Amino acid sequence: MVVRAGGFVALQFDETGVQSCMLAHEPYALALGYTRTMVGFLLFQPNPRRISIVGLGGGSLAKYCYRYVPDAVITAVEINPDVLALRSLFQIPADDERFAVICADGAHYVDSSDHRPDVLLVDGFNAEGVPPQLCSTAFYTACRRQLPDNGLLVANLISSDSGFRRCVCSIRAVFDDAVVVVPAEDSPENVIVFAWKAPAASLPLDESLALARVLETMHPLNLRETAIRIEYGKRIDWEERTACPRT
């Protein structure tokens, strides 16, 4: 369902579950804090050439990347044709030489595509939470396989979701603990997981803050706050919280 109120246009699963939100007067802005945290991928990949997005919704991440990461080729995958039918309402750009929206199962797309993204954003939900096919060891293994050696996976999870522990444990197992779990901006339940192939891809805080200052001249975001959140995430004992079994 689409709700218009207070200058916002929101896509909701029901009366309480917000799937996506757009500022009516600034459609390319990232209205929800978790999306701003997800774009923290810039602190690891400042100039990605290819970005894949699983889960379109109202297109917040896709639109932001299209406008503010102009050298990237972007593919967004959405399983629900009813969501795709709202594309013009949410002012999602038309397909062109560097932007494409595909109606497909995200798990199947990742497993079969040759897109080879530098950054893979996973933000796929239904009314019950993260679908099982986007929260399995097989899915995350396919994600890792598709990424180049310096590639980055960024996944949006909900800490109250019954599958949260399983998702975090699966990502840790597949990415050999090269993982940071970060509380999202302005959202106590959203948790953003950054995972990469390179074992030392995360910068020290002082270097990350310096990079954030440079990036903020090109991006309308407080990336320094995101850098601090990522550093905080490194210090949280998520292994204890999720009780992931050791292999």
From TrEMBL:
Keyword Ion transport in annotation: no
Alphabetical list of InterPro entries matching this protein: PABS, SAM-dependent_MTases_sf
A family per Pfam: Spermine_synth
Keywords associated with the record: Polyamine biosynthesis, Transferase
Domain of life: Bacteria
Active site per the UniProt annotation: 123 (proton acceptor)
UniProt key word Transferase: yes
Stretches assigned to the PABS domain: 1-204
Listed CDD domains: AdoMet_MTases
Ranges annotated as spanning the membrane: none
Family note: Belongs to the spermidine/spermine synthase family.
Protein name as annotated: Spermidine synthase
Source organism per UniProt: Paraburkholderia hospita
